[in-house]
UniProtKB/TrEMBL annotation:
Residues 259-289 are annotated as: Disordered. GO terms for molecular function: ATP binding; protein kinase activity. Keywords: ATP-binding, Leucine-rich repeat, Membrane, Nucleotide-binding, Repeat, Signal, Transmembrane, Transmembrane helix. This is Protein kinase domain-containing protein. It holds the Pfam family LRR_1. ATP binds at K360. It comes from Corchorus capsularis.
């Protein structure tokens, strides 16, 4: 770990247990990951602290959230059944990757910070048996929450607005909650609400007074209306500022731009010199020459060649693209990374290597410019932390360019099949990838179903690792219809539903890759067929990657994941489960895995 993070962690432990056994580690002369501090688990790739589990250790000190959240990769914090005092401070919002917070059975107090609602990855929130007071912040936007246990505190206000169809554990009993019990979709019984005398509803056999609901909604509707008014005025103001800025920018750029087009026209072609040995294409300013013999930059556009004024680069909402101009892309040194059936991918270094982008050039995509633009803008709205967004795009009749941030940590294919510099890709990390990818895909499917935009080309080379080594699905929605047929031979190209079901199949194949460590296709070998035949012969355990067996990964959970994968690759698309179901099943498995690690620790 980073020295600074280490220092914060030691500070966190100093406050929890000033006098502690030396054998725990937790000091500046050792490393939390390499020297295995008590209760600490690390990410095998990043060597960064992922889990801190310090249950039942008689800790009597103060909880220092600010320090522990300096470990930015922290996903699990568990201090159950100690005697820790203090509060959950606002800095909890810095624990961006936190998925599991277990603080039940302590003497924590104070209100719950508003920043809790920023923890978009949170799955389990368990703080029962403490002395928390006040209202619970609005957690309705944390879509992945599956456990919410806050019983035996002094929380008040209305029951928080959660997605009850997603929750597996829920308990608000023995608090001071009041008002009507929401529709829990038949998933929870009266036990979850007992000991809150001010609650009303059928479940607790305490009918709500007829005035209660309208009163509550009256009160509610009054508050948001002022709030909404402020929000809307904010939007209008923001809109005006943006329009003004754009107008100013356009005004200031107009003249030089016209000049540039004339310049390009005069010079004829935009040229680039290509170094044949390294695939490197450099299209620097000096290479803009009129020599007809030289090759055109791979991603320079035909409209320039034919002298037609080019349409400009459309910048999307990512800050990376701010100020990016099409000319910048044309002039920057570029390296060809891959050339597929439908397009090529370039690594482009801008501003002396300050920014590195990946530019996908797609040819022959029979989509109208309008549809393409609409699609790109729609994709820009559907954002998920595990989906790589496009930062800009360019569209002409002949070709489309899509610009992404370059991810330097490689892709899932390389991690599984390439040389890993001796680093193991362990079962926990594989399950993590499966859970994150399936969740992200489920989110995108839900957001984009109405628009009929599936991924269309999901495979392990399209799962990239970002700087935190979190998996990110790339090239979502660049579906060239042929590709659906490629990943799933029986699909009917024009049917949107089948497009989504094809993603499902592709996800199943990725799960098989994670489980077997084998290539999807290899000189006549077909992974899906092979796994199905081995399972038919009842030699199921034979399919698993030897590295996983050696590591002692749970056979039961590997078998469960295999069952999920087999459901996804069902030859009948309509019998495949939805990605939402798949994500839920994988997350339950991951939770079991996390639980087992916590109980082992
Ligand atoms: N934004 C990115 N940052 C870094 N590497 C990327 C990025 N996007 C793609 N890559 C990598 O570049 C290589 C080439 O990508 P490309 O998309 O051309 O090929 P592919 O994924 O194998 O095939 P397809 O054309 O079917 O998508 C792949 O190894 C891919 O993982």
């Amino acid at each position: 770990e980073d020295e600074e993070v280490k220092q914060s962690l030691v500070g966190f432990m100093d406050k929890l247990a000033a006098a502690r056994d030396k054998s725990w580690g937790w000091n500046m002369t050792s490393d939390p990951c390499k020297d295995k501090w008590l209760g600490v688990s690390c990410d095998s790739q990043l060597q960064a602290v992922r889990k801190i589990v310090l249950d039942e250790l008689n800790l009597t000190g103060v909880l220092d959230i600010a320090s522990v959240c300096k470990a930015s990769s922290l996903s699990v914090l568990s201090l159950e059944n100690n005697n820790v005092v203090g509060i959950i401070s606002e800095e909890i919002g810095n624990c961006k990757r936190l998925t599991h917070l277990y603080l039940s059975g302590n003497q924590l107090s104070g209100g719950l910070p508003d920043s809790l609602k920023q923890l978009s990855n949170l799955k389990r929130f368990e703080i029962s048996n403490n002395s928390f007071t006040g209202e619970v912040p609005d957690l309705s936007r944390i879509s992945g929450l599956i456990s919410f246990l806050v019983q035996d505190n002094q929380l008040s206000g209305q029951i928080p607005n959660l997605d009850f169809s997603n929750l597996i554990d829920f308990n608000v009993s023995n608090n001071n909650f009041s008002g009507p019990i929401p529709d829990v979709k038949g998933r929870f019984t009266a036990d979850s609400f007992s000991g809150d005398p001010l609650l009303c509803g059928e479940l607790v056999s305490n009918p709500c007074p007829p005035s209660a609901a309208p009163e509550a909604s009256k009160k509610k509707s009054k508050k948001p209306s002022t709030k909404q008014f402020l929000i809307y005025s904010g939007y209008v103001l923001l809109g005006l500022i943006v329009v003004l800025l754009v107008a100013l920018k356009l005004g200031s750029r107009k003249k030089p731009k016209e000049k540039k087009v004339v310049e390009v026209k005069k010079k004829g072609k935009v040229e680039a010199s290509t170094s044949s040995s390294s695939n490197k294409t450099s299209a620097t300013a000096t290479s803009v020459t009129s020599k007809a013999t030289e090759q055109k930059s791979e991603y320079s556009i035909s409209s320039v060649e034919s002298g037609v004024v080019m349409s400009s680069l459309v910048l999307l909402s990512s800050p990376t693209a701010q100020g990016l101009r099409f000319e910048d892309l044309l002039r920057a040194p570029a390296e060809l990374l891959g050339k597929g059936k439908h397009g090529s991918l370039y690594k482009v270094m801008l501003y002396n290597g300050e920014t590195t982008l990946a530019v996908k050039r797609i040819r022959d995509w029979s989509i109208s410019s309008e549809d393409f633009k609409r699609r790109m803008k729609r994709l820009d709205q559907a954002r998920h932390p595990n989906v790589l967004p496009s930062v800009a795009f360019y569209c002409s009749k002949q070709e489309k360019l899509l610009v992404y941030e370059y991810q330097s940590n490689g892709n899932l294919f390389k991690l599984l099949h390439g040389s890993q510099n001796g680093q193991a890709f362990d079962w926990g990390s594989r399950l993590n990838v499966a859970a994150s990818v399936s969740e992200a895909l489920a989110y995108m499917h839900e957001e984009l179903y109405e628009d009929g935009i599936a991924h269309g080309n999901l495979k392990s080379t399209n799962i990239l690792f970002n700087k935190d080594m979190d998996p990110c699905i790339s090239e979502y929605g660049l579906m060239v219809l042929d590709n659906i047929g490629q990943s799933q031979p029986n699909s009917y190209k024009n049917n949107i539903d089948l497009g989504f079901k094809a993603d499902n199949y592709s996800l199943g194949v990725i799960l098989l890759e994670l489980l077997t460590g084998k290539l999807v296709h290899n000189s006549g070998f077909d992974l899906a067929q092979w796994v199905q035949s081995v399972v038919r012969e009842e030699w199921t355990v034979e399919v698993f990657d030897k590295a996983l067996i050696m590591e002692g990964a749970s056979e039961e959970r590997m078998l469960n994941l295999l069952q999920i994968a087999l459901k996804c690759i069902n030859p009948n698309p309509y019998e495949r489960p939805s990605i939402n179901q798949v994500a839920l099943m994988i997350n339950t498995l991951k939770d079991e895995e996390d639980r087992s690690i916590i109980s082992e620790a």
